[in-house]
């Protein structure tokens, strides 16, 4: 199984340890392998958004949520060892060998001890302190806590002795890190809103070293332990970013990494008493794809992982980009297989993505549509044509690029395809860039080389993987919600119940149903929720949110069948003979003969997504996130609900099985896509 999801934008929502990456996507925790890129464990939860994920020193993960839950999991098995509940969201999280330090959104900071895979409460808590960044270091049989306050100062505290040092001159420090270098010296780094990175040394107290260095903080600040005093002194103020520094990390004091909203990832190398920039990575094109960076981890001296606002991880080793993880950072609205074996997904994050199998694992290969509107559905129209419908009144038909075709092979790689695509300012349409030279002509300072990749495009360059728009299908009065493709025609449905059927490759409408007049204020009451083409190409079935099911003649547009359920309907499909249509609704699933006669119904809970397979087999997605196999026996006229597959944590919006019936994909409101093996 593989799970795909964009990492949540909370600064502590992910962590990396050795070859494992763990992160929160919506309400789920994804544990991924950085070696074979398969999913180690998918943990769907029901405690709000995952705000914090941190590894413990023994390899478990501590998870914090927006509902105030702190949980301890085995990241391999998903076993939950312990859980504590706080009054407000877990805002920040730091973990040491024996302690978990948390900051809540409204109720201050708390310290928990880790003991035998359990959380043990301590006496330390500061209910009146709000922090924007925290850190913890165990040292001298005690520990130091670091707390960054919203008004700027950073407080270093030793709770055992109540000793405290206040570091002034900072501004909104979201990232604080401790490290111990090769000389057993304690280093402390901060990344701040003032675009600066500050590095302090915390050394054993020696009165002969206490001199006035003429800097803005008190260099004679002392932290007192039971048997040792430590002097805190500023070592460096590093400048290199042009926007807020959101994340810093230290690797044993040898190297320091910093990331910023400017889109840059800087690697700093220790040089005597200072740090110099040795690598400048990332992208400064942050206005296009929200690629400003949020956080970073050094899992080796020159091995950097960072995440951006668009839910994407980027990974560099020795300055070279390597494969990593990405996904939608809002609800996944639709998924669809191509006949060539890759699949597409769309989401409320206004992005369409394409996923293909490379070296045994699926990975994001392109973002055909990075849009200004929510994208609701997608479908393959032809080998080299794909339709997308969004909060607009037209279907946009996109064609893959020659660069994408190199990744997926034949038949696309044998076709004459455009070189690339880009969007002009104040426009929503992807412009065709037919040749390498076209890029510099229309979009300088970009040039053709920016669109060519040696393998999988890195996360910071995904905004350059759009597909050109080659056609638009209009004729709707309202915004589109669903698309279905027959052998000779394309159907689309809108948010007022309108259904349009057109000849493939021709803008001419073959049948038109306007739905509710555009001036009606009852928006959404007849929204098309499901749309499916009959295998014999003679009809299309549509469901609406208010439970009306209509079967249209694909040639004349006449309504052949109308069923009123009286409850919300969410999804529809056809059996292979085109003699029955299937409806997923608030109470479960129903099978109807083509003329509208009810053949069978099963009250199994709200079915929000379905796919119908040969032999009257179904795969169902439920409002509660469950996924189950099902079947209909036409002899006994009974529906059987069968095996349960890996579930989501929230509503399943779309589910599809590939043409070989070996894999099933599902997209959910929990922001994730699941790819699972399938067999009847």
Protein architecture, described:
There is one protein chain. Among the domains are: 1-130, Lipocalin, CATH 2.40.128.630; 331-474, Thrombin, subunit H, CATH 2.40.10.500. Helices cover 3% and strands 54% of the residues. The chain has a five-stranded antiparallel β-sheet, with no helix packed on it. Strands 1-59-58-57 form a four-stranded antiparallel β-sheet, with no helix packed on it. A four-stranded antiparallel β-sheet has the order 2-3-4-5, with no helix packed on it. It is globular, with a radius of gyration of 28 Å. It is an all-beta fold and 680 residues long. The protein contains three helices and 59 strands. It starts with a strand and ends with a strand.
CATH architectural label of the domain at 331-474: Beta Barrel
Largest sheet: 5 strands, antiparallel
Number of DSSP strands?
A: 59
Would you tell me the overall average pLDDT?
Answer: 92
Radius of gyration: 28 Å
CATH topology of the domain at 331-474: Thrombin, subunit H
The class by helix and strand makeup works out as mainly beta
> What helical percentage do the residues reach?
under 10%
State the separation between the terminal residues, measured CA to CA: 17 Å
Q: Which strand order does the major sheet show?
A: 18-19-20-22-21
- How many helices? 3
Poorly predicted tracts of residues: 212-217, 517-524
Strand fraction: over 45%
* Gross geometry: globular
- CATH top level class name of the domain at 331-474: Mainly Beta
InterPro entries: Elp2, WD40/YVTN_repeat-like_dom_sf, WD40_repeat_dom_sf, WD40_rpt
Family: Belongs to the WD repeat ELP2 family.
Main location: cytoplasm
GO biological process, one term: tRNA wobble uridine modification
């Amino acid at each position: 199984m593989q799970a795909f999801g964009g990492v949540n934008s909370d600064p502590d929502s992910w962590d990396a340890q050795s070859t494992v990456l763990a992160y929160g996507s919506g309400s789920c925790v994804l544990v991924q392998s950085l070696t074979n890129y398969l999913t180690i464990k998918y943990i769907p939860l029901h405690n709000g958004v995952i705000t914090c994920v941190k590894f413990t020193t023994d390899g478990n993960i501590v998870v914090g949520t927006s509902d105030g839950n702190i949980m301890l999991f085995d990241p391999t098995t998903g076993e939950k060892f312990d859980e504590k509940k706080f009054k407000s969201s877990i805002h920040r999280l730091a973990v040491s060998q024996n302690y978990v330090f948390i900051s809540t959104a409204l109720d201050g900071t708390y310290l928990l001890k880790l003991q035998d895979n359990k959380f043990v409460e301590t006496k330390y808590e500061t209910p009146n302190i709000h922090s924007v960044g925290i850190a913890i270091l165990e040292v001298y049989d005690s520990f130091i806590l670091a707390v960054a306050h919203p008004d700027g100062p950073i407080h270093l505290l030793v709770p055992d002795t109540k000793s405290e040092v206040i570091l002034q001159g900072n501004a909104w420090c979201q990232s604080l890190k401790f490290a111990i270098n090769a000389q057993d010296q304690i280093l402390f780094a901060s990344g701040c809103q003032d675009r600066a990175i500050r590095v302090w040394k915390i050394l054993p107290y020696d009165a002969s070293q206490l001199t006035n260095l003429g800097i803005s903080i008190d260099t004679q600040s002392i932290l007192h332990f039971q048997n040792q005093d430590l002097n805190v002194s500023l070592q460096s103020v590093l400048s290199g970013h042009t926007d807020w520094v959101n994340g810093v990390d230290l690797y044993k004091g040898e190297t320091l990494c910093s990331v910023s909203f400017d889109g840059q990832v800087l690697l700093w190398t220790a040089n005597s008493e200072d740090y110099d920039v040795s690598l400048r990575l990332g992208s400064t094109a942050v206005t296009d794809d929200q690629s400003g960076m949020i956080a970073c981890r050094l899992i080796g001296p020159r091995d950097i992982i960072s995440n951006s606002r668009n839910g994407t991880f980027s990974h560099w080793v020795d300055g070279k980009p390597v494969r990593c993880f990405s996904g939608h950072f809002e609800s996944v609205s639709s998924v669809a297989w191509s006949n060539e074996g890759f699949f597409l997904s769309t989401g409320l994050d206004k992005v369409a993505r394409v996923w293909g199998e490379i070296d045994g694992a699926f990975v994001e290969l392109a973002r055909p549509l990075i849009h200004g509107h929510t994208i609701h559905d997608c479908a393959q129209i032809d080998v080299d044509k794909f339709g997308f419908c969004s909060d607009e009144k037209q279907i946009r038909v996109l064609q893959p690029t020659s660069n994408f075709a190199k990744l997926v092979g034949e038949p696309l790689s044998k076709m004459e395809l455009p070189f690339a695509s880009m969007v002009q300012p104040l426009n929503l349409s992807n412009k065709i860039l037919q040749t390498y030279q076209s890029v510099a002509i229309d979009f300088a300072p970009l040039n053709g080389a920016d669109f060519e990749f040696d393998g999988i495009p890195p996360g910071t360059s995904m905004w350059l993987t759009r597909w050109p728009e080659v056609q638009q299908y209009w004729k709707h009065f309202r915004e589109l919600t669903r698309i279905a493709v027959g052998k000779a025609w394309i159907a689309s449905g809108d948010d007022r119940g309108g259904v349009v059927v057109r000849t493939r490759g021709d803008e001419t409408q073959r049948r038109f149903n306007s739905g509710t007049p555009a001036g009606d204020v009852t928006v959404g009451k007849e929204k098309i929720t499901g749309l499916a083409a009959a295998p014999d190409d003679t009809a299309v079935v549509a469901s609406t949110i208010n439970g009306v099911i209509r079967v249209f003649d694909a040639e004349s547009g006449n309504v052949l069948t109308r069923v009123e359920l009286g409850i919300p309907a969410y999804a529809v499909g056809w059996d292979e003979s085109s003699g029955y249509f299937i409806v997923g609704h608030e109470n479960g699933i129903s099978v109807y003969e083509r003329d509208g006669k009810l053949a069978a119904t099963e009250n199994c809970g709200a079915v929000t997504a379905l796919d119908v397979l040969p032999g009257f087999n179904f795969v169902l997605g439920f409002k509660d996130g469950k996924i189950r196999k099902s079947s209909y026996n036409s002899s006994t006229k009974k529906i059987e609900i069968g095996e349960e597959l890996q579930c989501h944590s929230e509503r399943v919006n779309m589910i599809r099985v590939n043409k070989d019936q070996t894999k099933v994909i599902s997209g959910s409101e929990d922001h994730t896509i699941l790819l699972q093996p399938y067999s009847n």
